[in-house]
Design a protein that fits this description.
- The chain has 15 helices and 20 strands.
- The protein is an alpha/beta fold and 420 residues long.
- The radius of gyration is 22 Å and the shape is globular.
- The strands form five sheets. Strands 8-7-16-17-18-15-19 form a seven-stranded mixed sheet.
- The mean pLDDT is 96.
- Helix content is 35%, strand content 23%.
- β7 and β8 form a beta hairpin.
- α1 packs across α15, α2 crosses α15 and α5 crosses α8.
- The chain has two domains: 163 residues, FAD/NAD(P)-binding domain (3-Layer(bba) Sandwich), CATH 3.50.50; 204 residues, Polyamine Oxidase, Chain A, domain 2.
- This is Amine oxidase domain-containing protein.
- GO terms for molecular function: oxidoreductase activity.
């Protein structure tokens, strides 16, 4: 039995804890005040009733989340079908549409606008071109370079593909210009986004995503320390010292760094050159999420209201700007419109704000994608293991897989350490 510290209580850390706690003495350190990371369900009490509203992780599907789905099945956590529609609306002109048959023609002016027709034709061409890129086996350039070389229209670029990609990765729209195009194409293909057929059935967790956090932590809840940010992780010859803020260092045999790459890099007092190099390849960007009931953040036309609603701004921000329709996503029969908006706090009526949360998401570059392939070179080396969704696409399934991969690397290193 090893004494193992797990730093970070998001999906990666909880997956590692779930696998390790039956056979090892685990201690989980979480910097935040709650367990779950991007799984953050807010209990809202209104005159209409009590509602559990998700604000970070919301959806999954069987096809693209097989390991997380098995995880939920193992825990006995129920899911329900939902729909993942997308809309775009402008705050400075009368322009909006949604990716549904009615939403595409919801604004009569679009129907007779040649630029709008070109935008739709470019979408069909882009989907075809992405499939060809994947079949070629080439890595391809950045998204911006690809769009420039392909002669795609300005409307398609700035009113469709960049908003869509920015929404998927909660990323700066301008920053999407440097996004690896093959990375995007692979994700879009896997999620049925390069066509209009063969799309997965999306699900949400019945009663809010907190249900799975409660279920998985039940056996080791007494081993979790919240509001305990770790300031230092130091390798010594016979142990690893973990130093939480304002507390004495504790000795462990192994450490799982299940936090963001920039956080892990800052904690390590004596990283190897390779650890420093690979972790530096994953920058993160802060995003402010607000749970509220201000329906003025939704599209003007009700037929354009979707699960994901992107905002085009007169003065663009270096951040994604999107509003999630939570009644729609979670099948909430509430009379209030529960919404989660990223990075548009100033436009929300303060009287309708329920909760404000700070999240951070990985920024993907070609250097980061290259670093992902080298996970096994540092994870498990000299008793420190690395887990986090940033090692893959950045979603819940990726957090689970990264933890499982880290534990596989751990076993490999243990086998290598046993004398023949």
């Amino acid at each position: 039995m090893s004494k193992i510290a797990i730093i970070g209580a998001g999906i990666a850390g909880l997956t590692a804890a779930h696998r390790l706690h039956p056979d090892h003495e685990i201690t989980i350190f979480e910097a935040g005040a709650y367990v779950g990371g991007h799984t953050n369900t807010i209990d809202v009490r209104t005159t209409s009733g009590d509602w559990a509203v998700d604000t970070g992780f919301i959806v999954l599907n069987d096809r693209n989340y097989p390991n997380f789905t098995r995880f939920l099945d193992e825990l006995g956590v129920a899911t329900q079908p939902t729909h993942m529609g997308f809309s775009v609306s402008s705050d400075h002109e009368d322009f909006e549409y949604a990716g549904t048959p009615r939403g595409l023609v919801a604004q009569p002016a679009n129907v007779v606008n040649p630029r709008y027709h070109r935008m739709i034709r470019d979408l069909l061409r882009f989907n075809k071109d992405m499939r060809a890129l994947l079949e070629s086996g080439e890595d391809g350039p950045s998204l911006g370079e690809y769009l420039d070389a392909g002669g795609y229209s300005e409307w398609f670029v700035h009113r469709l593909i960049v908003p869509q990609a920015s929404a998927v990765w909660s990323a700066d729209p301008a920053g999407m210009w440097a996004f690896p195009v093959r990375f995007l194409a692979e994700f879009f293909r896997n999620h049925g986004m390069l066509g209009f057929k063969d799309r997965p059935q999306w699900q949400t967790i019945v009663g809010g995503s907190q249900r799975y956090v409660d279920a998985v932590t039940r056996p080791f809840a007494d081993r979790i320390h919240t509001s305990s940010p770790v300031e230092a992780v130091t390798r010594h010859g016979d142990h690893i010292a973990v130093t939480p803020r304002g507390a004495e260092s504790q000795r462990f045999d192994e450490v799982v760094l299940a936090c963001h790459a920039d956080q892990a890099r800052a904690m390590l007092t004596n990283p190897t050159d390779l650890e420093d190099e690979l972790l530096a390849a994953f920058p993160f960007q802060a995003n402010e999420a607000v749970l509220h009931t201000d329906a003025s953040l939704m599209p003007r036309r009700r037929t354009c209201w979707q699960a994901w609603n992107f905002h085009l701004l007169r003065e663009p921000k270096p951040l994604t700007t999107i509003t999630y329709g939570m009644n729609h996503l979670q099948c909430l029969p509430a009379p209030e419109d529960f919404l989660v908006t990223l990075n548009l706090t100033e436009k929300i009526d303060p009287a309708k704000v329920i909760e404000t949360i700070q999240y951070a998401h990985p920024i993907y570059t070609r250097e980061g994608v290259a670093a992902q392939a080298r996970h096994g070179e540092i994870s498990g080396a000299d008793r420190i293991h690395y887990a986090g969704a940033y090692w893959r696409w950045g979603f819940h399934e990726d957090g689970v897989v990264s933890a499982l991969n880290a534990l596989d690397h751990r076993e490999r290193h243990l086998r290598q350490a046993v004398p023949a």
